[in-house]
Structures
1.
Amino acid sequence: MSLLHVTLFGKFRVRCGGKPLQGLAAQKVQELLAYLFLNRDRPHPREALASILWDHCSTEQSKMYLRRVLWQGQQALQGRPEPGAPALLIVEREWVQLNAEAPLWLDVAVFEAAYEQVRGLPGQHLEREAACALREAVELYTTDLLVNWYQDWCLFERERLQNLYLAMLDKLIDDCETRHEYERGFDYGQRILRIDRAREHTHRRLMRLRYLAGNRTGALRQYQCCAAALEEELGVRPAQSTTALYEQICADEREAVAAGRLGAAPNAPGYTLPDRLDHIINLQHMITSVQTHIQREIEAIEHALHLKP
């Protein structure tokens, strides 16, 4: 039985038996399926789905559009080579849900499962199997979720998954430093800076990695990159902890640099005030995004229930 192979990082793609599945070219069909893939753990009221996907239409119009798009999606999915395979969608009178028993490989699901395996676990304590799973997972993140899609629900999911990606890269940097795989750790840090070039915490970690790998010049140049990014992006100078690390490297104090622990837990020794502020700001941003998404879901369901006869 061939799996449906679905990728959401980058462009929306659905393949079956190694070939693109036909009949999914319509944008709204893709939006519906992508939303269900990303929210695959629960059933969705039809009215809520219609309101989310056609938020500028009247209730009757949005429900009519949903019926049409569901039909198009089901027709395409029924064209798979295995007619006896479990249906991907469970469509009922009031609810729509992704079938957990359907043969499906989803890049986002694999990515999230790898993160859940190490949630709350410091990168320095990763078992080799977990570290390998994490390394494979970050390779799935070829680019942001569903590029060039700007729906509110998609923007929320894109930011959520990007935050997971950054957290996974942080853990992998810790793991690489523990295993003395400094160049690989530097590569993970560079991926973070491609998303946020002014992330000072990451610049400090790359300074350490370069220096510990024997590249003192590269470590000093990393400080210059950090200072330039902070000035251009935020108009500020490097924090005292960054400057102190720079001075240790200038003085070639290898033992002092090696003894420092960047990426420790927020309450652990060596976790500096700038690190704590970065951590708090990131948490506040994530909490605000989650609250906004939940509020939209509540409003959509309340609106649908209010309009029921």
Note: Residues 152 and 258 are 44 Å apart (CA to CA).
2.
Amino acid sequence: MKAAALRSLLLSLGLVVSGGDDSRADSAAPFRWGGSSSPNSVSSARGLPTDLEGREPMWALRLGTHQYSIPTVDRGRIYIGINDTAIERSGVPSTGGGILMCLDQATGRMLWQLPSPRYFDGVKEPYHYNQWKCGFCSGPVVDGDRVYAVGGRGEVLCLDREGQANGNDGPFLDELEYMQVENAAEAALLPADGDIIWRFDFLKELDAVPHDVCGSTLLLAGDFLYACTSNGVDGKHAYMPRPDAPSLVVLDKRTGRLVAREGEKIGHRTLHGQWSSPSCGVVGGRMLIFFGGGDGILYAFEPPRPAGEAVEGAAVQILRKVWSCDCNPEEYRVRDGQPIPYSRHNRKREDGPSEIIGTPVFHEGRVYAAIGQSPLHGPGRGQLSCVDAATGGKIWASRLVDRSLATVSIAGGLLYIADFSGNLHCFDAASGERCWVHELG
């Protein structure tokens, strides 16, 4: 299969956000999951094979034991997060951490890798994350010569597209220590090592307590990176240790400086954790940032003031909320005047409220989002909501969708979403009428 055909096939499967400079109208836009900031994962590729029987793969690469990241393709390279069970970098043992890897698209050859071993010092109660061997769960975002991703340790990383092949660019220069290379003081960086430009630590900078995984993808809009902090409950699932830590923050993409944070105190209402990825869209001539909260509420925020208007060292801005919409019906939250308990891994319930885990999709003036929970909590009642992007008013909602971690896809007026119970649903995106449902078995 030729490279162009492979690219089209991967696009059709939603595995590639863009395939090269000739595949997008706006060459200045970053490469990212879904192909746009919406992100509506629908491909415009045509002429794809309907049957892969008898077609040999160009190459294959074992990625480890768990896989949660979506690859990003840019100018002949594939960027993907994996876990470190098959680490081959000398001096770096497998610790149950992750690796951000850059591969040659045509051959699968590794160009560089950045191992990110688990933290062992200081990561104890109330912390409860990075323990499931999930590795890098963030879809990398490529912008020119920079690669951005949320790391498994609770951080935002900005890396050099070329890795260490063109030298160690600062200001971050401690890659050996970061990778926990044995005898780091005597070791040397390799050309195939990753090159961190800057790093923003949620734990140190925000006093956040990530829960389970740092499982969101960054939104890059203009000079700003929007990041979900994965702030959540303690290791015993009893309380929110840091309810005042922000769930959504904004960084300057050039320096990693904290520019803004949400001020809605989402942490005080968070049910379990924060794993949804922010998205954006232009509504009435202005950009809005959409974020699915760990409290089950969909938010729309105005972007912060432009970076050029902010003074270095100035106070961190508070994002202005434009609207919010509870994606849980009231009867999911309260019964007979009493709050309905949230489901847990050791106390599964089909009723009760749920958070938003999938990414809100902006499409033709509307925002679509579903509620769901960790798969460990089992199946339960969900809801898919369609919200007016200008006002936050509910246009329609369907309870035919059970709990779901999925992000919707919309094409030709039809909306598709899978739920945890194993159903694939197709809805009329405008009216909310379900066209069909397929049990996946």
Note: DSSP finds four helices and 29 strands in the chain.
3.
Amino acid sequence: LDALSASYRDLMGHLMTRIPEIARDLGLVDGGYRVVANCGEGAGQSVFHIHFHVLGGRPMRWPPG
């Protein structure tokens, strides 16, 4: 996320509109889901490219982690 600039606007918009489609395909919409993007090693990022985790199918607690 730290490396994003305005030049990534179209890509990020595409990814954000795909997330609810994926959640629907996985049957997560009715029960709710969480979207996570880790940024940096200290936040748990271990794959250093932009990606999102779509979490659902169980109750989510707050605060996470």
Note: The radius of gyration is 13 Å.
4.
Amino acid sequence: MRALRDVAPTAEQLGILSRNELGVEIIRGAAGSGKTTTALLRLRSLVGLFLSRRRRVKSEEPVRILVLTYNRTLRGYIDELARHQVGAAEVELEVSTFSKWATQIIPTAQIISRNERVKRIKEFGKTLPFDSQFLLDEVEYVMGRFTKSELSNYLTARRDGRGTVPRVEKPLRERILNEVIIPYQNSIDSDSLWDWNDFALFFSSNNIEQPYDIIICDEAQDLSANELRAIKNQLAQESSITFVLDTAQRIYARGYTWVEIGLTVRPEQVKRLSRNYRNTRQVAALASSVMLGIPADEDATMPDFSKSSRDGNLPILLLGRFKSQADFVINYIKKNIDLNHHSVAFLHPLGGGWFDDLKTYLNDAKLPFVEMTRKETWPKGNENIGLCTLHSSKGLEFDYVFILGLNAEVTKHGEEEEDDKLQTLRRLLAMGIGRARENVILGYKPGAASKLIDYLASDKVEVINV
């Protein structure tokens, strides 16, 4: 699978790269603005700075670097790019997810399984007036945002990063805290189990033996406050840490302020990338329409088609049965896409077995593909068709993106416009659309459409019945 390699820095990026100072740097930017590329170009520049400092004092200590991202698929992609930027022998580079990094340091920890975690939280919260997924997300949000000694702050804090529906007033917060979170934590403590948040809490107050000179934290909006506290705590005394984020693309139950995680951020430490270098105007305009009306904070950069520099064809919206959608796209690939030079991604909200029929159709068409969700390394083969969940596609880019089978059964949410899950799904879809450099094709079955289809502006797509 093709991965981006050498890129000439843009004028916006050069403005960031010209400032090589120690301390905190925050890079904000919309999808397609080159945030990750900028961070990795900055990494190359910072390596040069630290190597010069080492040589000046005749130190043989290597420059220690940690590049963190939020999921394994993106880790594999960034590993390809980061190692291309850092070639010096005097450098020790780790590219990892937070969970893999943490478990490598504490390999003996007994981690509670996802199924057991869900089972316990559901059981403790069975009398609360929420559906199980909302409760799971809320518990993850609270445990990830507050330390154990500060859990009571949840009762009065603004729920940054969460929607306004369903409403969670103080009496319900007390019940979530006292009936679910504290009993759940006590139960896993008594069984000598670790929740993923326990790793974040541990490293928030414990240092590794050899701290890092440089940390790059990509997609930081989808890491928890405790994870960021833990990461910050592993820096050397003289060091650099760069956070790359866009809260408009947040797809997990997260929320924090920089002050909360112990950082004082001055205006000159914040850079924003506004131009869209990835998408055509037409693709960016469609992504923008999906996001219209969603509240944004200061760390968000909303998609803006006027900031794109290229024109292309209108995205396509297919109406028909899934088999007909797949047939159209397979013919489209054969007629319009040179797979020797262009990459294709089939994205889906759920993945897993939902790709089974598609894999059969691709095999029948003799179109080789790779499954990319949660893979540790970037695919090395010549296949330029990837199958991936929308979640795992975050931070990646492809020439063409196909999102088929956008039916209600795979995008469940509440009914109100301010529903947290609905807004998350809208951000997820806009992010998926924004993975495409050249064009996007979406599809759904009439009569079974996801509500997400309502947010695709009709003048931004070419509708085709199949």
Note: The chain has a mean pLDDT of 87.
